[in-house]
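#onboarding

Welcome to the new folks! Below is a worked example of what a typical request in this channel looks like: someone posts a single protein sequence, and someone else replies with the predicted structure as tokens. Don't worry about understanding the tokens yet, we'll cover that in week two.

Example request:
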Amino acid sequence: MPTDTITTAAPLRLVAYLRVSTEDQLNGYGLELQEDQVRGWAARNNAVITEVRTEPAVSGAALDRPELIACIQDVIDREADGILLPNLERIARELHVQEAAMAAVWAEGGAVYTADHGEVLEDDPEDPVRTAMRQMRGVFSQLERGLIRKRLHGGRRKKAAKGEYVGGPVRYGYDRADKNHVANEAEQRGRERARELKAEGLSLQKIADTLTAEEIPTKRGGRWQKTTVARLLDDDVRAKRNAADGQRMKLQREQDKRGQQRRKGAILTG
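Example response:
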């Protein structure tokens, strides 16, 4: 089992890896708190932090992270004996990325430590439970990431259904005003003209050429491109889908409310 306290003659040389994602920034688990955790663990466990490498606002779903790769390179170059993390989620929130990153460290004779559980032991054919327990931590981390993304996505779709700004570039035909989208009259005419040309059976390139010839402005100025026209027309489809989603959610809430009222009435008269 991993231990929180280790004893060794020479201090362990560990490179610390810290990472924050958008979700971490929202819940206050920032780089400063993570650094306090790894430095506290190092002080208690006869370890020296050779360097602190950080990656702000980076998803844990990808392995292609420069600072994580640099940590592994430190182990390869024998600049560090291993990697120290605040917790296993910092290395990845996808199980396959977690396992690939740690395998790369172990392949070079390095070790992986977390401030909350101590050493993360590599696979042992005589102890399959060890692997299962480590991977279960990764599975639940991946599940948590999925639930967070689902919650954020649901919130954005609710806002979009209300016509509120949900982040990212403002779609053609609208300007951003505080938390809402407001119609841009000139761009709205462009949207309508694009729909007319599509209804006439013109190709995306022909529509783009016509809009440019008629001097209908793009969002950033310049000529219309067929890819821009495609996005504009796709916006209509997404807007209809968001509106339909909003209506479905409204109906579902009304049905749930009526169901609660019926159950309450049945309890009172029962």
